[in-house]
Fold these 4 entries.
Entry 1:
Amino acid sequence: MAERHPQGTRVLRRINTAAVLAAVRDADGPVRLTELVELTGLTRPTVTQAVEELLDSGWLQQHAAEPSSLGGRPAVRVSLNGRAAPVLGLDVGPHTVTAGVADLAGEQLAVTRKPVRRKGTTHLLAVIDAVTEEALAAADVTAGRVAMVAIGTPGIVDGEKGRVLFAPSIPGWSSIDLVDHLRARFRCAVGVENDANLAALAVAHGRDGTLLAVQWGERLGAGVVIDGRLHRGAGEAGEIGFIRPPGHNPRDDDGRGPLERTIGAEAITALARAAGGARLDTAADAAEVFAAAADGDPAALDVVDRVARTFAEAVAPSVLVLSPHAIVISGGVARAGAVLLDAIRRHLEDLTLTPPALELSDLAEHTVLTGALRMALDRVWRQRLAT
Amino acid sequence: MAERHPQGTRVLRRINTAAVLAAVRDADGPVRLTELVELTGLTRPTVTQAVEELLDSGWLQQHAAEPSSLGGRPAVRVSLNGRAAPVLGLDVGPHTVTAGVADLAGEQLAVTRKPVRRKGTTHLLAVIDAVTEEALAAADVTAGRVAMVAIGTPGIVDGEKGRVLFAPSIPGWSSIDLVDHLRARFRCAVGVENDANLAALAVAHGRDGTLLAVQWGERLGAGVVIDGRLHRGAGEAGEIGFIRPPGHNPRDDDGRGPLERTIGAEAITALARAAGGARLDTAADAAEVFAAAADGDPAALDVVDRVARTFAEAVAPSVLVLSPHAIVISGGVARAGAVLLDAIRRHLEDLTLTPPALELSDLAEHTVLTGALRMALDRVWRQRLAT
């Protein structure tokens, strides 16, 4: 056998330690060393060395020894110490800021939320600081222990530089160096990402294939996730709100995109009022329009069909180019349920070759925050298990 | 230090051998063992063992020893033996079949081409066999040595099963098990891929980022390549020919997609004839329409602008969703040059947030074949260097 090079040995050791850590993480409760030998296929001395290293660095914790049934030495058991590297997630919107802390196992330790009462970036940054403080306190985690901070915000984000390039819904937001502001308190990496992209990551968690995850409320955005990884492209992938429907007048520019101006929640209510009829004249919001359609109201069904057709025409070209396995819709409009989904499906069948599966997200709340925590955890784990 | 497990040792050995092979491949000409020690950071005994293994398996070849300038032992030099694993590529079209053989370094050893004179799959398979035979003979490679066969064909292809699912331009084609037919002669893996996808791989070679590579002639297709890898999605990514332009009548169905029926090369000529005028009345093909536009003929410029607008409107939604770094156009229509490209760029600027770079491919001929050879080589190398 060849002489071994120190560099090769170090690599092998990191591979082994990572394998042991991954085995403990994926196990169901505390595990004994004997089990780890079985799970990893490594020798007992290698497992012992890796466990010692991981106990030293705090990633594993040791449990009270279980007396051996054979009367021998009590067996050492270890489990993941979720608090070794907790992560902080933030969902920064024009009206609310939500913060959450999760441990390494993905368990949410705390979630706090505060309204944004005044315009201006000074106030917004103060709200961010306050809600962060509260979440850390509630989770009993100090800023110095946080392993990664991930922030979701509307607008176009330069993920690499962590800058908000364009965010018409939060005036002044693109002039702030958010990463610099947070780095003053945290010693870890700080990531910024478009909120629809983070929602897409949350929706795509545990799914393979290509996914178009749509956020549909007042605003309309999407994220593309390919085999669990966010597709960013040149920087602004998923901006479906800016698709221009045929015949749309591009001059009514108010910062919103043409498609969200045409079929966002607000536009759906306006369409219904314009259509008129007993049920629609009094419809206060999109939810009531969908409820009327579900009850069989012909005018409401017609509005839903027009909204579905406009949506299907807007996404059909991307279905042909990207060929997603599924389109998953989250956000307020997702509460419309089957009446909207069926209509979109019918139009997509007409407009594409093989229409993708069409689903409503079952993530009720905090989708952006869940995505932010997901992104942070993915990075922390990827870094820790990288070999 | 921990006892080493045999499995870990085997992994380490494969990593080392792969590192040595990659270093030889990327070197400029034959290399000495001393150079390989420097290039890989491995010890001399490890390099020696890897080189012996690679000489045995035929992937490396040994060169005449160079006498050492210090009067010591002559230094052994090795280089890649490109013929250790040659690959075969095929471009199967309705009118022509082209075959090519490349060596491991990507050098094309032979390219042959034959017309398809009669309809029917029996004749087409006979042409495929004949052109393959000729290419192998010209390259002096036996079928048994071929490491991978990759075939490009129009239509929708199930890449995993290697079946053509839908190919209206070659009647009967989807009923043939092409992989089975070729496996009878070759002992290696046989891959089938959509021709526009292979052309995209060829165009994307050596480029990072997200690329939408458009093939634009009588037919209109595209391939999506993300960081050098073909994006397949659920199976039929890149089918831009089937995007339906606004106002298009879906009933004129002849197997071609709505967009290719509207702005394919044939449709461009028809549009020009309908527009009329001194230059356009006699335009024999799309090339003459573009030439007239380049000369400033107003009617021709108007036709080009309409074609460019229809193309831009069709791809704009995918630009917003996929955010490609570049759109590269190949095929007959690419010869139109700046007059078309400028018009498309103008419309895309209006329809998207940050328009991607827009380019014409500089691959003149054999784009699909080049892509087929590329795909085959990528797989052979990936398999060989996998650790």
Note: The CA atoms of residues 199 and 368 of chain B lie 4 Å apart.
Entry 2:
Amino acid sequence: MPSLSSGLAHTHPQIRPHNNHLLKSSHYPERFQAVDKRMNKPIVALLTDFGDVDTYVAEVKATILKETRDAVLVDITHQVYPQNILQGAFLLALAAKTFPSNTIFVAVIDPGVGSERAALIIETMSGKTFIGPDNGLLYPAASREKIRQVFRIKSELIPNVSNTFHGRDVFAYVAGLVAAGKDISHLTEPYVLTVQLQLPKPVWGDGWVDSVVLHVDRFGNAITCIEGGLPSDWLIAEVYVNDEWKTVAKVGRFYAEVGMGEPILLVGGTGYLELSVNRGNASKTFGIKPGDRISFVKSRA
Amino acid sequence: MPSLSSGLAHTHPQIRPHNNHLLKSSHYPERFQAVDKRMNKPIVALLTDFGDVDTYVAEVKATILKETRDAVLVDITHQVYPQNILQGAFLLALAAKTFPSNTIFVAVIDPGVGSERAALIIETMSGKTFIGPDNGLLYPAASREKIRQVFRIKSELIPNVSNTFHGRDVFAYVAGLVAAGKDISHLTEPYVLTVQLQLPKPVWGDGWVDSVVLHVDRFGNAITCIEGGLPSDWLIAEVYVNDEWKTVAKVGRFYAEVGMGEPILLVGGTGYLELSVNRGNASKTFGIKPGDRISFVKSRA
Amino acid sequence: MPSLSSGLAHTHPQIRPHNNHLLKSSHYPERFQAVDKRMNKPIVALLTDFGDVDTYVAEVKATILKETRDAVLVDITHQVYPQNILQGAFLLALAAKTFPSNTIFVAVIDPGVGSERAALIIETMSGKTFIGPDNGLLYPAASREKIRQVFRIKSELIPNVSNTFHGRDVFAYVAGLVAAGKDISHLTEPYVLTVQLQLPKPVWGDGWVDSVVLHVDRFGNAITCIEGGLPSDWLIAEVYVNDEWKTVAKVGRFYAEVGMGEPILLVGGTGYLELSVNRGNASKTFGIKPGDRISFVKSRA
């Protein structure tokens, strides 16, 4: 067995040098372009860490609906672990690809609210719009859709902005204007991203792989950063969490391949390898939480 | 007091012989008929065990909205106990009767995803459509609305279906097509249901009744399978859970009839008898969970 | 330090004498007026203690959608602590101001359902409509919007009203009619409110203030009844909960002003003073729950 503790790289958010060519192509206008009203009704999709016990999400929606009643509002989730930008960025990237063009994403996980972090609008080649703070949250989703142009929202020009609730007063307000097809060029200016969050990547060795748990879903499935799964010649794998041996799991294709209560490694609906327990809860069974390091060793059995 | 332990029947899902006359009447066409576009906008009502911490529900909605922005999406609940088909079937049946015709129900509690279980569309006489797996989940709701015709979805003809997320790739995709009024006859074929789940029925004796807890609601009310309540000459009843004596409760009509913290038996908004504690939590007070056997004995007091 | 225990007043809901001039102005008609259909689509905003594990919220929505598919349904929250009218009234008042005119609020926290409490429609000067039980829940929100007229719903004329689910059978049904622009004058009559719930007010002393925790939000921020915050010359404050010293906190403007894990007092997005812990949970750190008395003493430090 290899030394697992030395193999892991890129497990924490990384800043990489700004790719100016990608983000600010001269082929595209620098003025913010209103949505083409001949298209379908816009969707406004919301992802926050606001939970469901407060009025915050409703106030975000009310602010959008003040500008237009013809947007379709969809909650992605509001249960991101408080202020966990990495988990939020992962979930936003997961969800965003399923939404059609002319979707406006409003994502608010914003521990720096009230400080100097910028408020962003990112337009993608795929016709999607991402609105949120410049703290990396939007980057994995937006970059997968190929970034067309990045704008800073001139929050200082928006009236009645509170100190702590930019989700409503800045992001939702601007999302409402965009969804309504209004011209917001006076409220925006071209901008260079300061934070380009990279989701962790697995590190592959000879018969082993190190990865990170990005998310634990409702069923307790531990979703790793291994996109596409394990090689086809892995039939059984040993599972280590934070260097501690946990179990031996079948490598399979669907949950019902193993007996009730037995572990299985498969590529879930997310497209990432996950550790599951059939009709059980892998997170509770093995004590796994988002951010944990999870390693797999191909078994000879 | 009668022997309670021998009296209970039909407390677990039953398969009953297929009633061919009911399900496949020659009076109705065998081709799937698109929704009449002159009607109101369709409602798409969703019931799953996906919870609210993941992107699954949002991906289901995005998939529907890709096909039409003019459906009204409504969440029934996504908090069904993971893979609990009986609870899901009960809640779907409860909710479905309140929805108007031209509602498309998408219900996904699907422990057999990826195995050979069929994907269904059930059309009812009441103009409602039920879409979900052939595992009994849809049956109690659909049969109450009188089944007009059952179709299998030819999932094998749908492109890009993942192994584990048929909720999005099959059920939501087809629901979107139906909501958009598109012809899906090439994707469907007449089908005979393999699982006809029956909700448990109470067993009545001389001054006693045995039943099953189908659901515990947010207030901790234990909802039994006794539709319509107890006979009008029952004023007080003794309560047994799994054969253990728990309490004596008033048989009443509304919660405020008893003092704070006192138990009461009444027919709730669901139409079923429930054991409640006024301004309290019957489930926690008496240790009751869905699936428990609950019995009542008429008291002479 | 002053005697904190003697200073607190108005911390519990108060009934005050009815102001007949305000509630029943002769300048306004006594017949219920249908919504002006030339306006934007109505919003129907829902606040209940129904939680998310049951079908109750979906049945409320289905009932509204039976009357019109053109209302925009928005959940404020359904996680109000069961039967906690004060918390519900506070959250409704918080949320209501962000919604535009032509919003119909349906608020159901209704421990007296089935008893003789009236069902209300309150019209405000701001063009908003509040529908719910006459138990104080609607009053703080509606009175901030200036009450134009109060009506009782003649529930006895509505067919098929269950004993326990007026949220669906009375309030949602009437909300659907109002949202559809239908004439409901035959179902309503002018009414004098019996309960005018007042939210608690802080009591100010020389260098100290006593208040009440109205709500604990998802982040664990303890939201007090001190609207607008502390005087600008308070830089640091000692914090007492139920007369017990808890901590010394900076008085600031945004969370990031203090280090991770440190307490801060600021005016949050709600407009009320809240005790927060930067990237932490003030409620758990200091053992605070809604209804607790919380007092602040200006520190000389």
Note: The radius of gyration of chain B is 21 Å.
Entry 3:
Amino acid sequence: MPADHGPADHGFLAVDSGGSGMRTVVGTVERGGLARRESREPVRTGDRGIDPDHFMEQLVPMVRALTAETGIVRLGTAAVGAAGLASLGAALRAELPGALEREFGIGPVALAADAVTAYVGALGARPGAVVAAGTGLIAVGTDMTSWRRADGWGHLLGDCGGGAWIGRAGLEAALRTYDGRAGGSAALLARAEELFGPVKGLPGKLYPRPNRPAVLASFAPHVAACADGDPVAADILRAAARHMADSAAAVCPATGEPQVAVTGGLLNMGDPLVVPLEEELSRRLPHARQVPAAGDPLQGSVRIATDLAAGGLTLPGDEAMLCVAGEGGGGTR
Amino acid sequence: MPADHGPADHGFLAVDSGGSGMRTVVGTVERGGLARRESREPVRTGDRGIDPDHFMEQLVPMVRALTAETGIVRLGTAAVGAAGLASLGAALRAELPGALEREFGIGPVALAADAVTAYVGALGARPGAVVAAGTGLIAVGTDMTSWRRADGWGHLLGDCGGGAWIGRAGLEAALRTYDGRAGGSAALLARAEELFGPVKGLPGKLYPRPNRPAVLASFAPHVAACADGDPVAADILRAAARHMADSAAAVCPATGEPQVAVTGGLLNMGDPLVVPLEEELSRRLPHARQVPAAGDPLQGSVRIATDLAAGGLTLPGDEAMLCVAGEGGGGTR
């Protein structure tokens, strides 16, 4: 039986759209998130960037199911966090708010880069810096007047210290030993052969693949597994930690008492990465307090949607990173 | 008028097949190379690796034209240097010697990796090490009993110090400055914007391209141009020189009086690379004599073909690097 929600309840929709699919929550400001759906199909990216029609195709049945399940009669606000929004989001920004308004009567709609929803999920609406580290790596920070971002340039131009970066460095060290070059690691060579077979065949297992960063990142946990006892592997993780601290330092407010958090799958590597990372962050950002991330990007999206419903965002607006469409008075400042 | 060659003359065919096309020479042992043809179409690589049929399709008309031009009535031996032979040459090795025999009565045929023809072109049949540095980077060396190779793993796994490596490092430094991260270079950022436009658009100009290593390498000369005055650019070239010396040291005979040479387009960068490279090679290989490359890979192929015609190679054989098919008595030792 649907719960009973009066017309006075402020319903919201929160979305997190990324490389592994779309996750959606509906709820009310009064009660928080009430139900959630997930699609495993990532939204297509075409000539116009993120495809708004495909976005709606995925979203509409999930929202219908969620409103039926929760009995929420009116969704007032929505927050949509989307990977690639900053660089590939022009069509989505132009069309999604109108589509949500026509389909569900929703407005205003906040559109946020996935780095922003990661930030808000991790730290909420306060000054600081968040490093989102998975296959790639991006840092985002705010002093609550504007957003800054660092890295996130992809596996060839940057993403320094991310999973693909660590895995790539580990495989290079393996091949150095195979060749008899300096700077190699026999432990990493053994791991590489376990994972990929004889290393002569490694180029053939990497270069033809469309998802090269993921192939590289698949070796990152093996670098962590070798770090206790293998100085080359330990040095790779120390260098990754330095790169992550470089990015955090580039976006973190220089004054005040900012918080800094690291989120993403890379933390699963545990102490071999986390210990040098905490050291590098302390060294580079002595005035910042290191905190665990409070929540994930979907929770960040929920937070943005509820703030918007409750009268407007206190987070800074930014054309590429966070904008609100179809609002009346209260918006980002 | 064709020159007059007696039936006693030992005709040969030499081929250099690479990413930019196929170059072919015919000549005689007595007179050396006599005429040359060039095709701008690289041999196709398919499911079976380098395509032997496409190879012959390109080669046959060139050889017909060359024998007509030179009047050489019988080609006895051939040397074929081919990029990718070690990893993608199985079908070529299996079929090319028979095809050359049927079409032109040629035999024996030497098949060499392009790194080997580069070596022989640069140093001839003597012990040493050659670093072939263009967009990629590979080193090959011999003590005249066997071949060693180092690197050549491609732009994600290695090719450390090559053109794509240098260009990639330069672009990363440019983006560090753009982000406000440590380790950046304002000079390289200015160069990157001159070459690629606003750096926000740089990922879109790199990742969709099929020839990413070439796009990265296109920035390498700009790193060299900044090195006088920009310490970050100078450090990149110093690190590239160290990587090149690592590869040279891995393949160079440890004893005796080996020669070491560097070949390839990267040398066009001049002093900003060459000066640290000579220093690093002296430091790592004090017993080796640094010499300029005597010739290019096509000249290496000519040398292999004439040696073969004159009674057999003095160079070591190696299944992947240098093998002779269809020979009688004299072959590689």
Note: The first strand of chain B starts at residue 11 and ends at 18.
Entry 4:
Amino acid sequence: VDERDTRWLARTLQRMHPADAADLLEALPFDAFSEAVELLGGELPSDILIELRDSYREEAVDVLPDTAVASALDELDSDDATVILEDLEDERRERILEDLEPFDRAQLERGLAYEEESAGRLMQTEFVAVPEYWTVGHAIDHARELGEELPEVFYEIYVIDPAYRLQGIVQLATLMRTPRDVQLSDIMTDPLSDIRTDMDQEEVAFQFQKYSLASAPVKDAAGRLVGMITVDDMVDVIQEEAEEDLFSLLNVSSADGADSVVDTVRARAPWLAVNLVTAFIASGIISLFEGTLNQVVQLAILMPVVAALGGNAGSQGLVVAVRAIAERQLEGDAVRRAILREALSGIVNGLLFAVGVGLVALVWFHDVKLSVVLGTAMLATFLWAAFSGILVPLGLKKLGADPAVASSVFVLTLTDVMAFFSFLGLATLVLL
Amino acid sequence: VDERDTRWLARTLQRMHPADAADLLEALPFDAFSEAVELLGGELPSDILIELRDSYREEAVDVLPDTAVASALDELDSDDATVILEDLEDERRERILEDLEPFDRAQLERGLAYEEESAGRLMQTEFVAVPEYWTVGHAIDHARELGEELPEVFYEIYVIDPAYRLQGIVQLATLMRTPRDVQLSDIMTDPLSDIRTDMDQEEVAFQFQKYSLASAPVKDAAGRLVGMITVDDMVDVIQEEAEEDLFSLLNVSSADGADSVVDTVRARAPWLAVNLVTAFIASGIISLFEGTLNQVVQLAILMPVVAALGGNAGSQGLVVAVRAIAERQLEGDAVRRAILREALSGIVNGLLFAVGVGLVALVWFHDVKLSVVLGTAMLATFLWAAFSGILVPLGLKKLGADPAVASSVFVLTLTDVMAFFSFLGLATLVLL
């Protein structure tokens, strides 16, 4: 890059797999990366562009000239082209779209019209659909005629009626093992999935996972076949959705991980601000017992123990509950079982750790009363943590809120309040 | 189920997709589920058995008679059969394996010989391999002859030499669009992945994701083609691996989520025990300043604020770092950039929240010195949290440890110690 040897760079990248080439470019310092993309210009293959990570791809699209972006849009499958279009600012997007062929432009504009994170955005409009009276031989001959015009990768063909309504699916593996003269309608199977353009990507991912799909047809509101989603796009969604919940529980926004300090601060400060409020709520509880703390300083030494262990127990239950809700395992009879299990586990762990912390405190301070107060508060906090760990996310779900986003704050505040209140309250009653 | 109408139950289940049938069975109370499986016995289709969630599948395998398990093993693809075999106790496994055909038995025993979570365990030994001098027409005719003997689902065929070494891959989509007389060696492509039987499933998942694969060939140590992994098996692995790291950071074992109280307690108590130790380390730090706390009780009220916010800031950085390491984004120059970004973000957020908590404390206690001490401790803790959030996981990785498992405890203990030490230490210097 330093020597501005564009031709060598372009050749090297073209010889590699796009994913490997993208890795190579990302390994460059960010400035050198921009420079490299600028040098390459229109010679940066579009399949490398799409393999870049978000922040790099956005930078690349920023740096590339309009003509290079337009030709990338032209080469890519429609789902990937939409991703590039999303990166562009409104004005520039308009300008570039105007230069495209009317047909391509209409298709891309339709893709952008679907809501973000919907099946419509994820699907590609390139797929293979054939009428049901065709035979296996007919379908194969047709594919041979089309040759390079077919989508690069597909795993099944769709059998449709004249109104473009899906009648069935024929796996390529089935097509291969069936004699030429068999009619497609005899070997097609019912679609397992039922995906419409406005379906949320989380639901789409769920269907892919449940039915072990490699690809699935997408229908519009009128029931016409309009696109196909392939599993390679869903793999990322499945991972994102699994991470999203857990990120929320860890007070991290899924947008985090960017390269800039401003973005990082912006992603984290709101969670810290919420934490600021809840921390002062806990302080408020402690301040109620100022007099007691003044007389027994050991309480100040031990109270973080109750809060830390209680909070940990609560968040353990919470994590399991939130994932179970996301994977739809907490429905019907399973809810009652889960609440019972959490309560009993809370009692068992509460007893174990009540005795544990009590013994440590006894050895440390040689004060039986103090140890009993500590152990009792620990048990109470564990039980409370067990219930809030499962009831808070279930309650939020019932209210229609996302159980992952707000519940962590709720549960930790609840256990902190309980920890300080029970420990310092009991101490006031017993020790003074 | 109550009416013991086995025949009706078997018929209903058979008409549904196995995944839906499994959902239906799982919706039953656990006892009724066992009873239903017992009633069905050998009539429980093996493809439903494999769709059940772990705890239900284990229960079902426990309840089913040996003959039913043996016939399920016979019907299933080898990767699924291995899953069932894993559920069996050693003695029973031996007994059932002895009743199988010698060939099937040898194949299953070989599958079990691979390490858990390795590519060998994930792969199926059913795949389509053809010699390179064959033409497209030859391959299709061969597939038609085999018909039902072919694997149920496959997306590509493998081209091999006489020693069973992989020469190339032909996508079914490519096979379909190519004229009959073209030789396979002319249309085959180089395999993108390079998977051996002893490769860890995390690495396999990484290759599937990177190259957008639907299936991939698996080679043994000698380079011979021995199996195939399909994306539907990888989808679960990708999700598991994404969750595993984050679960560890949330002090939850990935084995959690079981139905029994004993399992739940066993999964969570170890994390709580570690937390017990770290909590008492924090208490130890506080106890160093017993004298100061005795004189200024407000310190006891405010010290959890410093610890809570500092811990939160540290774990935010930690989560992002651990995921970036897992996704191999923290390599080379990116490490330096990430450390710089975390340090700067720590300073910015530290300043913001130092002023924030300082102001709240000022309004509450009308004590300028106390507020300045609180703010300064907050800033120091944020900076410390920023560095430990990224350097602890990077250090653990360098030492060859899993950065996700132990780092959460380290980081929280480090920030707690810093929070209490800086706040109470500064207070001792300034306020007394």
Note: The mean pLDDT of chain A is 87.
